[in-house]
Every structure is written in structure tokens, then in C-alpha cells.
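Standup notes
- HV: blocked on the assembly model, inputs below
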Amino acid sequence: MRYTSSLAPVGDERGMVMVIIAIALTMILGFTGLAVDSIRVHNANESLQAAIDSAALAAAIGQRDGGPSQARVMAAQYAAKNTANGYPVSLANEDLELGNWDPKTHTFTPVPASEEASASAIRVIGRLSSARGNPVSLPFMSVLGRNNADVITSATATFGGGLLDMVVLQDVTGSFKNELNQALIADHLLLDCLNERADPDSLFGIDVFTGVATEITPMRQIATDYNQLNMKLNTIQPCGQPLMPKCSGTNQAAGLRAAVDTLKATPPSGARAHRAIVMVSDGEPSCSKKSGSCTSNSQIIADANRVADEAAALDISIFSIYYSGNGAAGSAFLEGLVRGDGFFIAEPQAAALSNALREVCFSMPARLVD
Amino acid sequence: MNAFKNRGAEKGTALVEAAIALPLVLLLILGLAELSLLFLGQQDVTYAARSAVRVLAVEDGTGAQARAEASDRLGTKAKDATITVTEPDPANPADCDVRVRIDVPAASIKPVNFFGFYSGDISAVVTMRKEDC
């Protein structure tokens, strides 16, 4: 007990252990309390992040499907379906920002209120703070004068983003000759849209078809080969021209076969890549003996559906964009080729094909990006 | 008491004081450790629920995949956990919610139970909107 004699006068060592323990206990309690309170703060942060992720994802879907007001409603709705710090999460107006997401620099840029309708990304900020009256209480740290802590977290969700591997399958049949330039403007716009919104590793391929199909380019990385892809689109001409397939009817089955093969020939850009074919065509199947690829229109229909099913089995979505201005009787066949997340658009105005392909770009799944 | 006033007899005083105080200190530390384990467990359970619900909402995964994700995140706690996955009702097109609830008995989170702070379940529920709905 040598140490006690250095702390107290010889003659009265009673209570010295209690003093040492009291000092040690204060330190132990302080540090342990700090640890426990820190865990509580992390815990609140984890719960809040889950709620804010949910709100951001719902808001992105709301923005895509109904615009800014629906985005705000859905964000508030899904935040409140989750709890943080024991209470349903509530959002204030300033907690939701609409803007655009740059996948290359990984940055979110808010847009002014006047441009919110065209925003493709939503950032939601979750706050458990003194200013909101809901901070995380710190029972142990309150002994040291710190009664509570603010927790602030955010989540950004976008649509038309992520890894997208897409093949444009362009009809270059004679009947589409007069509208082909408008269709190619739309194809360029789709490429531009993907270049702006999709993950830089995303891939893009181009196929054209008549009664037979030709691959214009295999899958290429959009970010690195953007200029080459634009040049490849510029080489597309009506059938019979150099590098184009001969004019030989309209065989969507041959086109889809080529598009699926183009996608299959290159590994997906990532495990979670969303793969899709965007077929732009102006009419019903037309079996031509010159093509040597069919025996009847009904065979084309059956083959096309079989290839579409094969695509679906490979988790490849099919978008079917139908230019109906050439007076084709129906489009049930083209509509029936839609698979996965794809959809069908019948567009009577060639100039409006750009809007249809923009819709394709914007329709890709919403996802959390930050 | 005279013996304690005696310098020679004070030699055992510290030992007696320590014998009284140390168990209390030990109990207090262990109690705080127990509390910490509970909070840490809550954090793990929340994280597991969040990861699992994202499998359903964003990755279009199945209920089995969501359960597997939750179990993976829970680690050893998974063996006693009850994982409840709620997917949208196909009969109700307006129902797009996916929900994962995880309940883990507190006893499996804290291997020791000094103070018995809590003996129920540690739970977390996370709800998201299914993207592809």
C-alpha cells in the first residue's frame, strides 16, 4: 500500500481507495457513456438513412411518373412509413431538392424551381435536430453538459441512370425511307441522353434490319466511344445503300435476333446492368422471299415472339417504338413484343420519335446513387 | 473500532474498501457493456433490414433473396432472428410497398445478462416503394 502514503498523511488512510475509485469511476463512466451515446447516435443515423433512402427512391419514381408535386408527396409519404429515433420521419419542404445527377463526377446539381419539371434526380435530406425539436438525446453525455446531438443524412435517387446496356434496333426498310432521318435524330438523342445520365461504364450497340439484319456496331462503352457511336449512327441509311441490308421485306424477328446476339456477344457492363433493346419500326411484318429468312408473315410473328421470350429470359427488356404514320393497319404485333421494363409507343409523327426515345431513356429504373 | 485507529491496524482498510467498491464498479461497467451491446445489436438489425428491403425495392429481388441478404448482414444473430418479408399484394395494383421486419431476441445479442435491461426482441422495420410496380 505504498501508493496510499504518497496521497494522504500517514496516520489516516481510511477512504483512500474510495477516493481513487470515485475518480476512476468518473472517468470510466464518462468514456463508457460517451461510447453508449455514440452508438445511440449511430443507431439513429442508421434508421434515418433507411427512411431517407426510402423517401428518395419513392420521390424519384414520383418525379418520373408525375412531376415535382408527386415527388414531394411520395417522399413525405415514404419517409413517414419509417421511423428514426423512435418516431416516424417527417420532411420539411426544404428537405427535398430536385436537380440532375452527373454519374461521371458523382455530383448532384439542384435546379431552380422553374426547371424542376425536367429534373431527373432527387436529393432528400433527413434531419434529427434541435432546430426541428427532435434531436437524439444523450443521457450519459448530459452529465458533461451535452444533452443531445443533431443527426443529418441525405440520399440521392435518380431515374434513367445506373448501368444501362442498350441496343438500338433501327428499321431501315423502304417504307421507312422518308422518315429515317427523323428516326436517326431520335436515335442520336437517345445516345445523348444515356451519355448524360447513365453510368459511364454503360454500353450501346446499333443494329439495323429489313428482311435481314446487320450489326452496325457491337456494344461499346458510351463514355469512351461516344463520338464513334455518333459516327456509326450517321452511317445508317435506307436499305440497299452501302453497308446497309438489302431491301427485302420487314422481318422484326431477324432484327431482334441480331439485337439479342449483339447484347450477348459482350459481357454486361456490371452485375446490376439493365439491358434493353429499343426497336424502332414502322410497320407490320412483311415476308420477302429475297430475304431468305422467312416463309410467311405468321412465321415472322412466331419467331419474333420466340426471340422476345429468349430476351426476357436473359433479363433483357424490349421497348417497341412504332411509327404509325405510314398507315399500317395495326400494331398489336409490335406491342406484343414488349418485354421486361419495356413499353410500347405508337407515334404518328416522325418528328415526335425523339420524344418517344427520350421517354425510353427517362423510364429506366429509379435507383439510389448516393 | 479502536483497532482501526491504530496505524498498524489500518493496513487492511484499503483491502476492505476495495472489496466493497470493486464489485460495484465491475457491475456498473458490465451493465454499460450490456447496454452498449443492445444498442449495437439494434444498429445491426436496422442495417440488415435496410439492406434486405433494398433487394426487394431496387434490385427486384425475391423474398428469399431478401431473407438471404438479411441473414448475411445479421451474421451469427441470424440463427435466432425472425425475418418477415412483406411484398405487394398482387390483387391490389395500388400496393407497391415492400417491407422487411427483423426481430432478434435480446438474449442472442447480449451473451451476458447482468442487469437484465431488456429481455424482449430487438426489432427493425423498413418500408420502401418497389421500383418495378
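- HV (later): unblocked. The CA atoms of residues 86 and 246 of chain A lie 68 Å apart. Chain A has two domains: 16-158, 164-368.
- Next: hand off to the docking folks.
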